[in-house]
Amino acid sequence: MPITTCVFDAYGTLFDVAAAARQAAAEPGFEALRQKWPELANHWRLKQLQYTWLRAVTDAHADFWDVTQDGLDWALEATGLEGDAALRQRLLDLYWELQAYAEVPEMLRALKASGLQTAILSNGSPPMLDGAVQSAGIGDLLDDVLSVESVGIFKPDSRVYDLVQERFGCARDQVLFVSSNGWDAAGASGYGFVTAWVNRAGEPMDRLPWTPAHVLSDLTSIPQLAGL
Question: Does the model's pTM come out above 0.85?
Fold first, then answer.
């Protein structure tokens, strides 16, 4: 069936999760971060994801903002920066205004101009996602922003992917689901979506029962994958 709906993960897919650490490192007063920001950004993101998985399998759901702060605290300690309260606060503030990747606005405009439905499906809480969408200026290019908070469990639980069909009334194979997380794209493939993994870092394929239908280096070709 033809694609009618394009759904995107948010963090790392539309929004650059390393932007907060990179920007803070360039600001006065945070010189200690300048050599460590890539390491901190990697630790922060990995722990953030690991904590969502652990909370999902142990039925200990928490708001993604709490998980984000926990991941940052671990990363700060791992990089020897845990005593800098001003740095911690600045990194958290910047996470609410993450930069979108450069190709995102044009890509979304192409989808909308062709009549496709567009949405975010994210672990993020509604306030966090609203902040990122507004900061990136892409709110008018999205039909909806769907958060796991409405079902109380993180991806890749199938109840999260159910939200797309419930909102848009489409068949699973009419959805192009796009994520920068290989495990997320794999989970959505197992669910029945057509999937694209945005593998910007050139990482190996995750060893899981399912694989993404497409592997991309950025989001530029999404309109073509959607059949435009």
Answer: yes
